[in-house]
Amino acid sequence: NTHEVMGHSLVKEFITDDFKTAVQTVLDRALSGEETANFEFPLMTKAGARIEILLNATTRRDEHGKIIGVVGIGQDITARLAQEREYSKLIDSANAPIFGVDNKGRVNVWNQCAMRLVGYSPEEVMEHSLVEEFITKDYQASVQAVLDQALKGKETANFEFPLMTKAGVRLDVLLNATTRRDEQGNVIGVVGIGQDITGRLAQEREYSKLIDTANAPIFGVDIDGRVNVWNQCAMRLVGYSPDEVMGHSLVQEFITKDYQASVQMVLDQALKGKETANFEFPLMTKANVRLDVLLNATTRRDEQGNIIGVVGIGQDITGRIAQEREYSKLIDTANAPIFGVDNKGQVNVWNQCAMELVGYSTEEVMGHSLVQEFITDDFKSPVQAVLDQALHGK
Q: 91 burial class (0-12, 13-18, 19+ CB within 10 angstroms)?
């Protein structure tokens, strides 16, 4: 209580030995008229507990302006410092590289994961310029811009940049840059939480290489339907270089008018996660030749599973379609009756000779059951048996 402290030496009796000199210096300065704000020091309680105090030391004067002592206005920051130590411990032991810079861009946070990843110990990086000493020249301006934005309170997510290791190896890092503030809300720096994406980018480059050199035409569009993948086979097939198609609307600029709606529907479905296989559509070449393409439209997702576009793997079936048309023409003009059924026994081929012989037009038989509607009752079973055997490959 008051009686127990009045007249006693503050420094000698209530300040821990390791802070006696520093606290005495603050008091001496205040007694010289030089006041101190936000000085942290420990104070021992009667029960022997250590309390952390944030102190403003103000010079005390009499009515004549003569210095007669010091008044200290304190704040108990014991709990806050405990939280900060816990926060620092969590940062230091996190399994992601975390670093921080002050408002001058000098490193003041460097956790164990950052140390293991980059190779520099905290002692080697603390107080050094992050941008000037650890970022490659070609990215210094963009990384500095991200830090400057965060120092203005504008945070950045998923920013990719390279970081050089102590061994001179380039790492690709995905960064979330967060503004760091003191207890009054003043910006005091930036904390960056990173993710090493070097392996992922290497895989993506390998994936891109495989796509680009595949012997099938492969293209991709973003969520707005604009081309962002166009491999060499697509270029050879259609005639447009990647520079001529990238960023352009696939449907509006390269699909024939009569198929724009259906192709757009396939893309829209894939952008909702519903993929389409074996979709036939025409694609116009640079020389204005129509190609028939068989397409598998696959949803494209980022590493978080968010849909970011569609990849189409195509097959040029122009020649096959031409052969089928020629085959259909030969069947239709043959001088023998030819008919065909699907695997349900419904008529899907009926040539001119069959029409002339039986008298039914194509429109009258297509989609109808051959056996049930056009075969006499006494032959329905054996004809059905013949069809069934053929449907089993016999």
A: buried
Which residue in this structure is represented by tokens 């290791």?
A: 165
**Residue that has been written with the tokens 């097959």 in this structure:** 315
Quote the CA–CA distance of 216 and 230 in Å, as a whole number: 11
Query: What are the tokens at 109?
Result: 């946070």
Tokens encoding 225: 């339907």
Q: How far apart are CA 135 and CA 131, in angstroms?
A: 5
Whether 15 contacts 5, CB under 8 Å: no
SS3 51: strand
Instruction: Label each residue of 117-173 as H, E or C.
Output: HHCCCHHHHCCCEHHHHHECHHHHHHHHHHHHHHHCCCCEEEEEEEEECCCCCEEEE
Rounded CA separation 136/130 (Å):
11
Residue 82, Cα to own-chain centre: how many angstroms? 36
Q: Which two tokens stand for residue 356?
A: 């002339």
Angle (CA) 314 315 321, round 5°: 130
The DSSP element (H or E) to which 204 belongs, if any, is helix 198-213
pTM of the model: 0.50
For 295, which DSSP code?
E
What is the token pair recorded at 22? 């520093």
- Predicted confidence (pLDDT) per residue in 134-161, tens digit: 888 899 999 999 999 999 999 999 998 8
Q: What is the pLDDT of residues 47-95, one digit of tens each?
A: 888 888 888 999 999 999 999 999 999 888 888 777 777 777 777 878 8
Close Cβ partners of 29 (under 8 Å, ≥ 6 residues apart): 35, 36, 57
In the block, which residue shows the tokens 């811009």? Answer: 145
- Name, in order, each residue with C-beta under 8 angstroms of 366's C-beta and a sequence gap of 6 or more: 347, 348, 350
- The residue behind tokens 């209580």 is 1
What stretch of H or E contains 75?
A: strand 67-76
The position carrying tokens 């059924």 is 341
User: Please, which residues bridge with residue 67 across strands?
Assistant: 61
- Cα distance between residue 289 and residue 275, in whole Å: 28
Quick: pLDDT tens for 361-381: 999 999 999 999 999 999 999
Burial of 222 (0-12, 13-18, 19+ CB in 10 A): middle
